[in-house]
Amino acid sequence: MAADADARRQLSGPAWAAALLNGPLEFAEFIIPIWASSALGGSPAEVGAVLAVFSIAALATRRLAGRTSDKRPAQTVAALGAGGLALGFVGYATAETLPHVLLAAGLAGVSSSFFWVGLRAFVARNSARPGQDFAHLMSWEETGAWVAFLAGLSVLNSAGYPGVFLAAAGCAAAGCAVLLGTRARSDPDGSAPETGAHARPSHRGLFSATIVLVHGAEALMGLALLIHLQSRFGLELGQIALVYLPGAIALGVLPGVMQRIPQRCGFAGAMTGAAILSALFAVAMAFGTAPVHLGIAWVLQAAALSLLIPAQQALIAENEPRSAHGQAFGTFEAWVLAGVAGGSLAGGVVYQTGGWVLCCVVAAAASVACALAAPRAVAKFTATKAA
């Protein structure tokens, strides 16, 4: 019990950092397309370029961030990323031209890699109970997100886009300071952790496919819902945020509750159940006739993600060498980003060509495929460790 309490205290710093950074990042992702278009006069192609630069920079440096987290203290790597994000937000706040915005987006993308990979590697390396600790981390992340949305809309109304970005920079700087004050635990016998281990290539098989599928389906529905709320119901920015709010609050509350399922049913059962919930969510969304119905249905997706994401992360933490957690989470984060990028692209194309219902059908099909593949994916993943 004392060891668990010590571990939880050590992870309180990363939890605070996750809340401080995830909220501004998600709110910035929400408003940057609108800001680049309305405030800077960017064309649709230029707005797309800003988003692409961030995503490409983040994806390209995930594995570098992983290797760095295995060679250097992971909390220091995460702090470096948080500091870079603070500078990136300042860049957004002072940007007046497209090249300036692209430079800030590239810095923010690279920095986000070092922050998230370093943070997850630290939690995995210092966790006594990975399932519960990653659920705790996700709760803090998502609580930070919905608080940032409410606060960000208020700041946006009073101080405009520069005020929002400067507030985000302050949060990132605070997260950096918290991480610099965080210390890693020692092994029980006082020895150093093993060295020379490498992350296994298990992410590149069936397990990686399930990661891409489920995160791609979530991104597809997220973008399609945003477009649907604007084009079908004519909602404005604040009204759209309120539709997402019930699901966002659920994401902050449910992870700790949902992690009782992997403890009873195992990782395969948890991942299968989460994919089935996600498929049911997509079907329910197809029948939504009003924004309030869509907001309620989004809570079902929140439950699926609350079960799935901590289970995926705990599976990696428990089955990779401790000294290779950085590489493992760098690869995991790269596959998540690949799924999000593919799902976002598909969401826009499918909505434009086939409409809202087809988006729901595609997302449901991807989730069902993930549910069917999950048991074998987990078995192969854990079998590689046993071998």
Could you write a compact summary of the structure shown?
This protein has 13 helices and no strands. With 387 residues, it is mainly α.
Q: How does this structure look, described?
A:
- The chain is mainly alpha-helical and 387 residues long.
- 85% of the residues lie in helices and 0% in strands.
- About 3% of the residues have low confidence.
Name the features.
single chain, about 375 residues, mainly alpha, 13 helices
SSE layout and pairings?
Elements: H1 2-10, H2 12-38, H3 44-60, H4 62-71, H5 74-94, H6 98-126, H7 130-180, H8 206-231, H9 237-258, H10 260-286, H11 291-319, H12 325-354, H13 356-386
Largest sheet: none
Helix and strand pattern:
HHHHHHHHHHHHH
Instruction: Give the CA-based shape.
Output: globular
Number of strands: 0
Given the helix and strand composition, which structural class is it?
A: mainly alpha
Helical content stands at: over 70%
Spans of 5+ residues with little confidence (pLDDT < 50)? 187-197
Termini distance?
32 Å
How many separate helices? 13
Mean pLDDT: 89
Cα-based radius of gyration, to the nearest Å: 20 Å
Share of residues in strands: under 5%
